[in-house]
Amino acid sequence: AQKITQTQPGMFVQEKEAVTLDCTYDTSDPSYGLFWYKQPSSGEMIFLIYQGSYDQQNATEGRYSLNFQKARKSANLVISASQLGDSAMYFCAMREDNYGQNFVFGPGTRLSVLP
Amino acid sequence: NAGVTQTPKFQVLKTGQSMTLQCAQDMNHNSMYWYRQDPGMGLRLIYYSASEGTTDKGEVPNGYNVSRLNKREFSLRLESAAPSQTSVYFCASSENPPNEQFFGPGTRLTVL
């Protein structure tokens, strides 16, 4: 069963606008972590943001914020003030604590920022 | 401070050949991971090691073996390569608990 779903294969956003990348997850583990990574065309994987299942507040890191809705099992990434350099693949991932350090990644969303 | 390094960057094998992918980290992390990434897909975990001396299977371990040589190094071995193992392989490391993973640059492997 798909544990991480990213329903947007591709997204376009105008430079300087905000964009939301969707991620839903499936777990019965009460303790888990959610992650977002960026993969530019150069291929490296870049960590963006982390949200723990028990964290009361939504995580933020600079222009990145994670809209965590636990009851809906969604962990959407919001990028504010998009820049051309934000064009990349974005992956949502989950770690379930009852499964050790077994990370599961979604299929990704390709974001294109238009000038 | 090099972070996570992987060798080689590129490799072409013939079916049935063996090879070892090397990974090293200089961040004193306890946990290390091997992933593969196929076109159009996210990363899939092959094996991980939560500490020196321990290894555990991930989602797609068949056809691979791993060795946690010491705290710094974690190698991935293909004993008899198959075309289905053509992929980009990433090594990563993290502290415990893993609230962030640091990735190496990847190895692009082609099996003919």
Walk me through this protein's architecture.
The complex is a heterodimer of chains A (115) and B (112). In chain A, a hairpin with a 6-residue loop joins strand 10 and strand 11. By secondary structure, chain A is mainly beta. The mean pLDDT of chain A is 93. Helices cover 0% and strands 51% of the residues of chain A. Chain A is globular and about 45 Å long. Chain A is built from no helices and twelve strands. With 112 residues, chain B is mostly beta strands. The termini of chain B are far apart. The mean pLDDT of chain B is 93.
Uncertain runs of chain A: none
> Secondary-structure element order of chain B, as H and E?
EEEEEEEEEEE
The gyration radius over C-alpha positions of chain B equals 13 Å
Shape label of chain B: globular
SSE class of chain B: mainly beta
Q: Which of globular, elongated, flat, extended, rod-shaped describes the shape of chain A?
A: globular
Task: Identify the biggest protein-protein contact and residues per side.
Answer: A-B, 23 and 28 residues
Helix content of chain A: under 10%
Terminal residue distance of chain A: 39 Å
Q: What percent of residues of chain B adopt helix (DSSP H or I)?
A: under 10%
Strand content of chain A: over 45%
Poorly predicted regions of chain B are: none
Total strand count of chain B, please? 11
State the oligomer.
heterodimer
Number of helices of chain A: 0
What is the number of helices of chain B? 0
Classify the secondary structure makeup of chain A into a structural class: mainly beta
